[in-house]
Amino acid sequence: MRLLLIGPPGAGKGTQAEILSRILGVPHISTGDLFRDQVGRRTPLGREAARFLDAGELVPDRVTTDMVRHRLGEPDAERGFLLDGYPRTVPQAQALSSVLAAGGTTLDAVLELTAPEDVLVDRLLARGRPDDTEDLVRHRRRIHHRRTVPVLGHYAGLVRTVEAVGTVEDITARILTALGLPESVSTR
Ligand code: AMP
After folding, report:
1. What's the rounded Cα separation, in Å, for the pair 87 and 4?
2. Which of 10, 91, 125, 149 could form a disulfide linkage to 120, CB 3.0–4.6 angstroms apart?
3. Could you read off the pLDDT of 4-26 as tens digits, one per residue?
4. Where residue 184 falls among pLDDT bands split at 50, 70, 90?
């Protein structure tokens, strides 16, 4: 299965992606995690990306897409993947379509996670990542609305919207239903 996970900061994309990746048996590919790994290892890409992450800005499209193209070319992504946090802009969505077309594949679904603002803010405060300060969160939310929400238009017929409120288990169950998968797969 080839899935995208889209939602504002604090929607629980990472948490759900990890669970779904186990259930569906496909790798969880988070561009945020990939960037943080590069930053931690002080690679040239990490040094370039760090200033964008620290400022709550998006890393430029070309750099991000090159990294994703490379990751999707690894053997474990051959039978499917769960992309978390990519594409975040319309040009990234167009680039992903080309990458997939070159490999002769397409997406199965795009999962949009939504939640009211107070729920999002509470989750981010509980998480406490370095880019979860009040100012940076406000900035990242603005970027999400301006740059990432239009991405949903690119995938009109594929989008399944799930309300990401309640317990982690409840949300997973809602996602499986939205994907048309029997809930029993979650106990496998
Ligand atoms: P995340 O872990 O998804 O919240 O991403 C953390 C940070 O990594 C973002 O605020 C951006 O600086 C960067 N990032 C992650 N994914 C992307 C992307 N698709 N395009 C550009 N920047 C990204």
Report:
1. 8
2. 10
3. 999 999 999 999 999 999 999 99
4. low
